[in-house]
Amino acid sequence: DDKLIKTESQKVSAEKTYAFMVKLAAGLIKYKVEFGTKTGAAETALRTVNNLVCGDAYMLDGQSNAVAWNDGGPHGKYTSEWIRGYSGSWGNATVGTIGYWGVALADRLVATYKIPICMINGAVGGTRIDQHQRNESKPEDAETIYGRLLARVKAAKLTHGIRGVLWHQGENNSGAAAPTGDWDYRSYQDYFVQLSAAWKQDFPNIRNYYVYQVWPLPCSMGPKGAGIREAQRTLPRLYSNLSVMSTIGIVNSFNGRGLCHFDWDGYEQFASLMGPLLERDHYGAVPTKPITAPDLKKAWFTTPQKNEIALEFGQDMAFDPLNAINIYLDGAKGQVKSGSASGKLIKLQLSAPSKAKTIDYVADNDWDGSRDSLLLGTNGIAALTFSEVPISQANTPTSAP
After folding, report:
1. CB contact at 8 A, 205 and 170
2. With contact defined as beta carbons under 8 Å apart, do 109 and 115 qualify?
3. Lowest mean pLDDT among 39-43, 105-109, 392-396
């Protein structure tokens, strides 16, 4: 801000080398560096660099809902001198460079914590998770999505500055297109583990991973979308620093079956749902209520007659009679007649004794697209959908699935 904060000088060594290192305070401050030489009393300015800022950097990755192009709404054409992007050169970020919810999320962090934010978006529409893997023999392979993203982060000199990765992907893995030749959901977690291991190797200071659970029947793709969502829901069992957020509860202005891309208001909700998690993990925010999507921990029959099932979540839950239509026992619906919520427990009363082995919540082809029929936490966030979760016998709850 045109106030001198530091003057450094170095004598050139016998090898004609020199080095400067100056720590900058992070904040809404514009820095300028002037560099030159001094011989005797004469100083010569050789180079001036303006418009430097110091803040935090994140990566966004995935497919089209991570590309998130939409030029409507309050952030459609929004730019800020404190939100930066890098696409071969530095500049103020736009929806075209970091995606709509990337801009909205960065704006939230800048406004709340008064710190510049850089987002680098490597997402590519219509891609599977195996297409995002690193070429181990040539990590910066320009023919790969990973290689192009790595090259950009290296060019930005941010390989050691990335705090976290936000991932929205899975629509194109709802079938059997993976190189394994099997249903994609069976290899999805393995591919994500490999990808995150590559991230951690190339961007070693990553602290957290943030994953969005995709919509049911996303982009009209299937038939195993429930399996992909279950793979995403259970990813945190493999990590100590990964959070999953639901998108099923997002109210979209063109809501309905076959939804592929969210509108600008939906992407605003992407930012408002995930923002509190980043604030907790990176900026010391202490939530006064749960900020996560409710996640099922276990399910069991509560009576010897097996006419009631208890579902335990990680936070307090609500229950509406409409929720019953989205609950399936051994893949069959219509077996739940009523339910109730008390704290973290939901109890389901069945229409008849059951021999069911598994329980599912939300089926791709049956969900009507309505938020009214969704399980919600008392925090108003939609629960993560689940698939083929084992039901233990009466009074013997299972361990977390």
Report:
1. no
2. yes
3. 392-396
In the chain, how many H helices and how many E strands?
7, 16
Other Cβ atoms within 10 Å of 291 Cβ, number:
20
Question: Would you give the DSSP letter of residue 165?
Answer: E
HSE, side-chain direction, 13 A CA sphere, residue 64: 12
Residues 236/296, Cβ–Cβ less than 8 Å: no
Say how many C-beta atoms besides its own lie within 10 A of residue 28's C-beta.
14
Give the residue from 54, 65, 60 showing the smallest Cα distance to 28.
54
C-alpha atoms less than 13 angstroms from C-alpha of 344 in its C-beta half-sphere? 12
Contact, 263 vs 253, CB < 8 A? yes
Q: Which of 242, 185, 239 is nearest to 211 (CA)?
A: 242
- What residue ranges in 306-364 does DSSP mark as E strands? 308-313, 327-329, 336-342, 345-350, 358-361
Looking at every residue in the chain, the average pLDDT score rounds to 94
Task: Tell me the DSSP string of 289-300.
Answer: S--SPP-EEEEE
**CA angle, 331 then 130 then 169, to 5°:** 60
Highest mean pLDDT among 7-21, 76-90, 215-229: 76-90
How many other C-beta atoms are found inside a 10 Å radius of the C-beta of residue 359?
26
Distances from the Cα of 158 to the Cαs of 152, 183, 198, 283, in angstroms? Answer: 9, 36, 15, 20
Q: How far apart are CA 85 and CA 50, in angstroms?
A: 16
In terms of pTM, does the model score above 0.90? yes
Q: Name the β-bridge partners of 118.
A: 57, 84
Start-to-end Cα distance in the chain: 54
Helix 185-202 to helix 145-155 angle (10° resolution) is 20
CA angle at residue 188 from 59 to 328, to 5 degrees? 115
